[in-house]
Amino acid sequence: MQNIAQAVSIRGLINATGGVIRTLIIIAIGMAVLVFFWGLAKFIFRIGGDEKAVAEGKRLMIWGVIALFVMVSVIGIISFMQQAFGLPDTTFPAPPSDIPNINPFNPPGTQSG
Fold this sequence. Notes:
single chain, elongated
């Protein structure tokens, strides 16, 4: 991932910003999952006791599921639009072409088969 300070062109700045945004999206999805499981834990461990904690656990689980649904839906809509309009998928950059293709199960100098 290119650092924003190292971007020397508009394209480089866009690519660097896209990398930061992808990282933030991953962090947001992880936080939504953590909120859901935190609510689940509060719900399970307080089920026979404090009704306020049980209600807060339910609320956290609901908001965690809503956040996950919205984020995954937006990612799906963006992917659909990219395919519908023939835009390139920029989720993962193409690997460099100068990396040799090495088969670890057939080392160089050995015959296959």
